[in-house]
Design goal:
five-stranded mixed sheet, three-stranded mixed sheet, 8 strands
């Protein structure tokens, strides 16, 4: 469990670096279509899920993926220290240090306790999502088919997309889908882009790193970029100027959220509605050069931050005949012996 937790910590650190980079890159992309900002979060999600990545000379990562070494602690009691020379690394054992042993025991205990706390939190968030999914499924089980994959129910307060294999669009009975065609188109964009699969996958990725507050901020920003990009897709495909009517619907539906706070389903009223309305009202089709430049920026970002730096190994390590049960291997405690061991 400790090894898994250390791996998660490393993934969380590298994902945090990428998330901060996304937040910075979103600034020059502020006037570009939000689909580009939305695409940037793909690298963060990959960093949160996969404990490995390829090395590349094009990497923009400032550090390696394994910031915290797996063998940071080999044992709980030892006074062994490491002496480094340009040709090899040797080990000498000075007078046993009881204080070092106690310190090692404390480090191991903290890491073990933290790993179980992390696991409990992760499982709790998964259980929360499952309970929400089952509850929402029971809520719409008697929904009435309107047409195609559109249903209506008197037990919900706002439209949303729900389902994994064959996602459906659910409307409250008091809202006529025909009168809100652009709202329907918004949900259809979600389905066309497979957001109904991306969002739960992203939720699992961020829940895996629930202890990192930056990841929850990233999840919120990703969800907002997702919704804004859907808004823009609807506005772009509509020949008429529906910005005012669209904004009015967003505002009215946002007041009807009720208890629809589920990481599996998502609705038109999600995200920061105030920012979404402002984005809708000032929306205009981007110039071709803005789109082209955005493609280049996003492409460089995806390539640069999805790979790790190639780190050179300056000297071989030699720990022959050293028992793992009697050695503490703490990177921060290496001592350089200029005269040899």
């Amino acid at each position: 469990m400790t090894a898994i937790f250390i791996t998660v910590l490393n993934m969380s650190i590298t994902a945090s670096i990428v998330a901060l980079a996304v937040i910075l890159v979103r600034i020059p992309l502020k006037k570009a279509p939000k689909i580009f900002s939305y695409a940037l979060w793909a690298v963060v999600i990959l960093r949160l899920i996969f404990p490995f990545s390829i090395e590349s000379i094009f990497s923009l990562m400032p550090t390696s993926a394994n910031i915290i070494p797996q063998d940071i602690v080999f044992a709980q009691n030892s006074g062994i220290q490491l002496a480094y020379t340009p040709t090899n690394m040797t080990v000498y054992n000075p007078t046993p240090n009881v204080w070092q042993g106690n310190e090692a025991n404390l480090v191991v205990s903290v890491i073990e306790i933290a790993s179980y706390v992390w696991l409990i939190g992760f499982v709790a968030l998964l259980v929360y999502a499952v309970i929400g999914y089952v509850s929402l499924k029971r809520c719409v089980r008697f929904a009435t088919l309107v047409r195609d994959n559109i249903f209506e129910s008197d037990r919900i307060k706002m439209p949303f997309v729900f389902g994994f294999i064959r996602p459906k669009i659910y409307f409250p009975t008091m809202i006529d889908p025909a009168k809100h065609d652009y709202i329907l188109k918004h949900e259809q964009v979600h389905i066309k882009r497979c957001d109904y699969l991306i969002k739960p996958f992203a939720y699992i990725a961020f829940a895996l790193h629930w202890f990192n507050p930056l990841m929850w901020a990233a999840y919120f920003l990703m969800s907002r970029d997702m919704e804004m990009s859907c808004d823009e897709a609807v506005l772009k495909k509509t020949s008429k100027d529906i910005r005012r009517n669209y904004s009015t619907s967003l505002l009215s539906l946002s007041t009807r959220r009720g208890n629809l706070l589920n990481p599996i389903a998502f609705s038109i009223g999600e995200g920061n509605v105030r920012d979404r309305i402002a984005n809708v009202l000032k929306f205009k089709k981007s110039a071709s050069w803005v789109t082209a430049l955005s493609v280049i920026v996003v492409g460089i970002f995806l390539v640069g931050f999805s790979s790790d730096r190639i780190l050179a190994i300056d000297a071989p390590l030699s720990t022959n005949n050293i028992s793992a049960d009697t050695m503490i291997f703490n990177i921060s405690s290496w001592h350089v012996d200029e005269h040899g061991a």
